[in-house]
Structures are given as structure tokens and as C-alpha cells.
Design brief:
This protein is an all-alpha fold. The protein contains three helices and no strands.
Amino acid sequence: MDIDALKLKIIEAGEKAVEQLIKVAQESILNDSEDDIAADRLKNAAATKKLAIFDALEILSRIEQEKSMLDGNSRTTTTTTMSSFAERRAK
């Protein structure tokens, strides 16, 4: 199998991952039965959603880069690393 075919498979997997991250971001934080939810659980849920959104955007950006390289466009935008928002903020 050649490298381009492998990259296309990786791109396809990345697109599926983005769809899953969107589902995480769209989930409701509060259910009707959980009115007295602890503040730390709310913060964790919000942080999880934020992480899912930023990771999805980063994956999409990288997919666009790889697709343009496969199409022969040597136009490269800023180099992104595949680290999560939390990992970048910890540095």
C-alpha cells in the first residue's frame, strides 16, 4: 500500500473522529433531574466540551493541510501539532 492511500485512510479516520467530538460537544451538561449538580462537575463538563471543540478544529485544520498536500498544493499554513488544548496550555 502506498503512502497516499494510507494518508487517505488516516484522513477518513480523522473525519470520523471529528464527528464523534461534535457529538460530545453537543451533549447536554444538565439533565432535568440533576438541578443540584456540583460546581466542579459543571466545570469538568464544560472543560470536556471545550477540549472536544478545540481538538475537532485542530483535526480539521490538519486534514485540510494533508488534503492540500495530496492534491499537489505545496501551500502550507502554520504548522500545527497534534496536542490538545490542555497540553498546549500546560507548556
